[in-house]
Every structure is written in structure tokens, then in C-alpha cells.
Design goal:
The structure is a single chain. This protein is mostly beta strands. Helix content is about 5%, strand content about 60%. The protein is built from one helix and 15 strands; from the N terminus they run αβββββββββββββββ. The termini are far apart.
Length: about 270
């Protein structure tokens, strides 16, 4: 077995855990806005385990085992047909193994903001979105909280297009943005892509890519890095109002980041 690497390289990867790509399952629903007076609630749970991380060169290295569970409740409501309000509180549990030996359970980031439809036609939509992220803890001395104690502002442009693949109704959602972090951790460029298709009327298959790239700014002991995640899932429509989602997520590449592997499950409710 490979000799455990607990030193500068491993610690940089561990510190980057809370610095790069803070929200996979927390990603928003897409470029489309909700109809006035209608909306949706998505309660999602994500569990990931990271016994390894990526170093400066993108190579896998041993780090203190980093286990994380996040429970997110995404609420979207149509203020008008073109303006959707967004609220997303988060409950988070983090456990870091030896020799760090730290844990935390409590509020994660809570998000508040909105999405505005700027242009649309019968098959496409172009939107802008701004979300403020409010931390659930301010304890910089807790290794399980480090990097997640400062406010953030997530700004995105979103494009969505619906189309058919044979008889399967499908869509593509592309989000490009910048997450400003008001503290020592580097701010990030964001690029998220979702492809969805329906092989059956009550089944939606999702392929999602979540990408974060640090803007190069480095303060204190924080380092700039990158993270590229792939999430595959299926959403089964129980009826017109309720759906169930199940899938897996993995970090497939990165620099100064965790190599996460985990499961995602969610309940969707449309109203």
C-alpha cells in the first residue's frame, strides 16, 4: 500500500476542501424561471467520503479522511413569470479523521437571491442570477469549519435549451459565473452544465458537470485550486407534484481539492 502522505501537500488539499466547489447537490434548478404563483421545493441529501485529495499537480495523495453530509432545501417561487425568488438553507455534518481529528454539525451556507429571465423563445431561455451565501458558522479555529466562515456572492448567467432526441424530450442547461468570497479563501469561476433526457414520461435522466476554478488570489494559508465533479442521477415522477431522485457524484479531476465519492438522494415537490 502507498505510504500515507500527511504533510504540506496533503494539508493543502485538505484545506482546499472548503475552498473549492462548495456546492454540488446545492446547484440551482436551471435557467428557466417559475411561473407566477408557482414554484418547487427540492430537499436533497449528499454524502461524500474523501480519503484522498488532489495535490498542486492534480495527482491523488493520501489525506486525513474527510467525510461530509449536506442536507439542502431549495425553494424557488415565481414572483412573476420572469422573476423567481430563491431560498436554500443547508444543514451540514463534517468529520475529519486522524491526525486532524475534527468534526462539526450545524448550519452550512444559507442562500438567498433570485433569477431573472432576460430573453426567451419557444425552446430557449437566457437568464441572470444573483445569490448571497450566508455562512452558518464563524469559527475560524475549527478545522471542520475552515474556509466556510465568510459571506459569499454567487453571480451567474444561465442558458437553457429544450430539444428532442428521437422521441425523448431533452434539455441542456449551461451556467457560467463568478463566486466572490469575502475572506481569505480565493474567489472562484464557475461553469456548470446539465444534460437531461426522458426515456419515459415519468423518468428523467441527468448528467451534470460542476466545475470550479480559483481566480488565483491566495491569502493567509489558503491556496487557489480547481475541482471538476460529475454527477449522474435519475428522477422518477411519482405524480404531477412529487418526484424522487437518486444518483452518484465523484470528483474526477482537480488541483488542491478533495477527491470525493458519494451518493445523492432528493425529494422534489412542485406547487
Amino acid at each position: 500500500a502507498a505510504r500515507p502522505v500527511i504533510g504540506r501537500v496533503a494539508m493543502r488539499a485538505l484545506l482546499a476542501a472548503a475552498v473549492v466547489g462548495a456546492g454540488t447537490a446545492a446547484a440551482h434548478a436551471g435557467a428557466w424561471t417559475q411561473a407566477k404563483g408557482h414554484g418547487q421545493i427540492i430537499v436533497s441529501g449528499t454524502y461524500t467520503d474523501s480519503p484522498k485529495g488532489f495535490d498542486d499537480d492534480g495527482n491523488a495523495v493520501d489525506i486525513p479522511d474527510y467525510r461530509k453530509f449536506e442536507l439542502n432545501t431549495l425553494i424557488e417561487y415565481g414572483i412573476t413569470d420572469a422573476v423567481t425568488a430563491i431560498l436554500q438553507p443547508q444543514l451540514q455534518s463534517v468529520d475529519i479523521g486522524q491526525p486532524t481529528d475534527a468534526s462539526r454539525f450545524g448550519l452550512g451556507y444559507s442562500e438567498l437571491g433570485g433569477r431573472v429571465r432576460l430573453w426567451s423563445d419557444d425552446v430557449s431561455v437566457f437568464s441572470g442570477q444573483v445569490v448571497a451565501r450566508i455562512p452558518g458558522t464563524y469559527d475560524d479555529d475549527d478545522p471542520a469549519s475552515i474556509g466556510n466562515t465568510d459571506p459569499e456572492l454567487d453571480m451567474r448567467m444561465l442558458y437553457g435549451r429544450s430539444f428532442g432526441i428521437g422521441s425523448w424530450s431533452s434539455f441542456l442547461d449551461v451556467q457560467l459565473g463568478y463566486r466572490a468570497r469575502f475572506g481569505d479563501p480565493p474567489s472562484e469561476f464557475k461553469a456548470d452544465v446539465t444534460f437531461g433526457t426522458r426515456p419515459a414520461d415519468d423518468l428523467l435522466l441527468l448528467v451534470q458537470s460542476f466545475n470550479s476554478i480559483g481566480d488565483g488570489s491566495e491569502k493567509s494559508f489558503f491556496v487557489s485550486g480547481s475541482e471538476h465533479k460529475l454527477q449522474l442521477s435519475g428522477v422518477w415522477d411519482v405524480n404531477e407534484s412529487w418526484s424522487l431522485q437518486l444518483g452518484g457524484v465523484a470528483t474526477i479531476a482537480g488541483e488542491n481539492a478533495l477527491r470525493e465519492r458519494g451518493l445523492v438522494a432528493a425529494v422534489w415537490h412542485r406547487f
